[in-house]
Design brief:
Enzyme class (chains A, B): transferase
Number of strands of chain A: 12
Shape of chain A: globular
Oligomer: homodimer
Strand content of chain A: 5-15%
EC number (chains A, B): 2.3.1.31
Protein name (chains A, B): Homoserine O-acetyltransferase
InterPro entries (chains A, B): AB_hydrolase_1, AB_hydrolase_fold, HAT_MetX-like
Helix content of chain A: 25-40%
Subcellular location (chains A, B): Cytoplasm
CATH topology of the largest domain in chain A: Rossmann fold
Number of domains of chain A: 2
Largest interface: A-B, 56 and 56 residues
CATH superfamily of the largest domain in chain A: Alpha/Beta hydrolase fold, catalytic domain
CATH class of the largest domain in chain A: Alpha Beta
Chain lengths: 370, 370
């Protein structure tokens, strides 16, 4: 996606103030693109902030303007769904640093040219600051809940830690309070794949015919493996061949899993900006909620007061494991925060939070009805 | 490593006959480079064939001619070591398809130009055919043992299945009888990283100033993650910063694990040929010992007779897990082959077979003394 122009006009607000960043820099002229689903009640007390994952966007339950595909969580959000838009006003904003309408590296900087690598390095907390500023603009003081899976869950936890007064409930799914060495390693492979692509050109590829699409595809392929369990990959593909009866003894995609990964990589480049991938993975790698709060995770949640937490992990998720989640639970227990925790059985690995796991539906609906 | 010339003169034999390949093709004028350690007994009954892993070579217990580093298994092979060169004659050959003196894609084809991607796609069984042909030249009919870890273990199992009369013992460490969908997926990421590099140029980069070194480095980085356990990475690196007191809020290697991976990737390109990486990963992905023998793994070992097997897995190896190894054990049990199996505790993941695991030394020494 080498264009500097988003080929649609997303619904967005311009934040009234520059955004202070963890790096010490400020980001001025910040636009936050968002979608809403369901009506805000007159008392303004039924708002849910949904936070998307690394490559997600604000199109939770509406058609993606670039791909034409359904929203990424339509099974969870809508009329009569677990996050019931008959009852709740759902807000989902594109994170800053991303490429679906919120200010990111593809956006014009002060000189009118795309920021590219002049965009400041941001953190998960910076993303959350932008979310809070959006809520200010929308006139939503206190959320009924903040909800997110994966990087969305990091934002949910960060919001609870840094803006505890702004939400009554926190629901984190398949997430972690800290990126591990292995997590960082996989992201570093992706970043190096992008930067190794001559089309990246130090980040200055906007307006060029092609960007670092091959590098971005490789980054996506590497990451995608971590989103699936080994058993899930085996069930889905095993060693089955792709449209052939025998091995080709060549380098075509003989195996279905190869063909699938290549497709995942290529289709990703149609909708995502490589520099955004660099910045958002960096934000995730920097995420360590304990470190932000003096080194003790429990201290991150000292101000959570009556905020209720619900945390969900999946038994086959090896990216953000149940053990990672237990650390969060223990920290919440240490400050006597009300928390429920469940490890769900699901065969799909990390991506389970996006897939058909009826038990997750029940957990989400139950937590919101309390 | 874009040169067509290996910058040393390895000890090698030229096979007297063309090598038949699983693809149906033949490879003519095959050279097999090898090293030996310890004397061959007059009865020629003390030979051990060591098979190296994906990026390994014949320099088991002698200095690597390109890197100047010690041999890759000096802790296991030598005077008084578990594979004691006072007693045994150890042979280790560079696999065909590789780049340390055996015929591979960088070698001159019939027209005198490097094969590059005209090199035939080979299999693990083809590698083993070359090993057997080398043993013929060396006048070694029956091995005291064939030993290998990782891809070396695949060769050991394949030799037992296809040339059962040629060895009395088989020792497979941290290996598998079949590459899984996840194994294939990681290799495919590496291949795509290489092929995405414009320096790859369809494989025709020999003699050029630079080959696909960036792509090869990314491939190595992705693979390297799979060689280590998550706990091992956490113990070794955690979230420690590299030579700095605080995050840089940039894209330098802030974290030690990033710096380590970058080094692993870059240093690899000094000693390995990218096309060899493509061919050898393909051979591994094609490996399915059951499929080669009618779909039932036990049938692969029907001719093993009195051959004794010893299989070793590591509890933290998520590349080739204990569960993979158990399938081999069950197949051997089904044909009543003598087999001992042990899962060793070691924190390092797949790479444990190369590292300081004293329990492995005892298993190896014990198996060879029986």
């Amino acid at each position: 996606m080498a264009s500097t122009k988003t080929p649609h006009a997303p619904r967005a607000v311009r934040l009234p103030h520059p955004l202070p960043l963890d790096s010490g820099r400020e980001l001025a002229d910040v636009h936050v693109a968002y979608e809403t689903y369901g009506e805000l009640a007159p008392a303004r007390d039924n708002a849910i902030l949904l936070c998307h994952a690394l490559t997600g966007d604000q199109y939770v339950a509406s058609t993606h303007p670039l791909t034409g595909k359904p929203g990424w969580w339509e099974r969870m959000v809508g009329h009569g769904r677990p996050i019931d838009t008959n009852r709740f006003h759902v807000v989902c904003a594109n994170v800053i640093g991303s490429c679906m309408g919120s200010t990111g590296p593809a956006s014009a900087g002060p000189d009118g040219e795309p920021y590219a690598m002049r965009f400041p390095v941001i953190t998960i907390r910076d993303m959350v600051r932008a979310q809070a500023a959006l809520l200010d603009v929308l006139g939503i003081d206190t959320l009924l809940a903040v909800i997110g899976g994966s990087m969305g869950g990091m934002q949910a936890l960060s919001l609870a830690a840094n803006f505890p007064e702004r939400t009554n409930r926190v629901l984190g799914i398949a997430t972690t309070a800290r990126h591990s060495a292995q997590n960082i390693a996989f992201h570093e492979v992706g970043r190096q794949a992008i930067m190794a692509d001559p089309g990246w050109n130090g980040g200055d590829y906007y307006g060029a015919a092609g960007g670092p699409e091959k590098g971005l595809a490789v980054a996506r392929m590497a990451a995608h493996i971590t989103y699936l369990s080994e058993a899930g990959l085996t069930d889905k593909f095993g060693r089955r061949l792709q449209d052939r009866d025998a091995k080709s003894f060549g380098f075509d995609a003989d195996f279905q899993v190869e063909s699938y990964l290549r497709h995942q990589g290529l289709s990703f480049t149609d909708r995502f900006d490589a520099n955004s991938y660099l910045y958002i993975t960096r934000a995730m790698d920097y995420f360590d909620l304990a470190e932000e709060h003096g080194g003790r995770l429990a201290d991150a949640f000292g101000g959570a007061g009556e905020t209720r937490f619900c945390l969900v992990s999946f038994d086959t998720d090896w990216l953000y494991s149940t053990a990672d989640m237990r650390e969060v639970v223990h920290a919440l227990n240490a400050v006597a925060a009300p928390v429920s925790f469940v490890e769900l059985g699901a065969p799909y690995g990390h991506d389970s939070f996006l897939l058909d796991v009826p038990a997750l539906d029940r957990v989400v609906a139950g937590f919101l009805s309390q």
